[in-house]
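Lay summary. Proteins are chains of building blocks that fold into shapes, and those shapes determine what they do. In this project we predict the shape from the chain. Here is one chain we studied, written as its sequence of building blocks.
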Amino acid sequence: MSTQGERPFHVLGLQQIALGAASKAELRALWVDRLGLAVTGWFRSERENVDEDVCELGDGPARVELDLMEPIDPAAKPAVHQPPLNHVGLWIDDLRGAVAWLEANGVRMAPGGIRTGAAGHDICFIHPRPNDAFPIAGAGVLIELVQAPDEIVAAWRERRDDGAGTLARNDTLGGP
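And here is the predicted shape, written in a compact code that computers can read:
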């Protein structure tokens, strides 16, 4: 399937990784107690069936959020602990433009539309599985699209204009 029109947005870098388990204690034992990440925030939502600790890696525009999640009710949906790698989040410079273009180009978005996420940014999700109407999806991975704040967009543009590439390639993932 070919794309229609010029893509009106950019993926600026990795915003978050969300990990789930039946109990956050298992995740905290590794990520907080052994690897030394600090818990910088908390989020709880009955509607989203999630109780999460928010940790951060790195700083500045290359900072990545690591969410350690457990379900409030393990029998309820969404099951934030299955699969254990719940989702990855990507910084997007124009979320509304991205969603419109992606849907017009056959990408299946998850229900819920654009809404405010746990960190206060506008978010939405690419569904992990395609359907007949939208044959492109996350190939089994739930992908969160996050509206990047102005400082992230500005840092990305500065690096792009300097020829340094994307934040994800050069900073977040520790590349050359």
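What the prediction tells us: The chain has four helices and eight strands.
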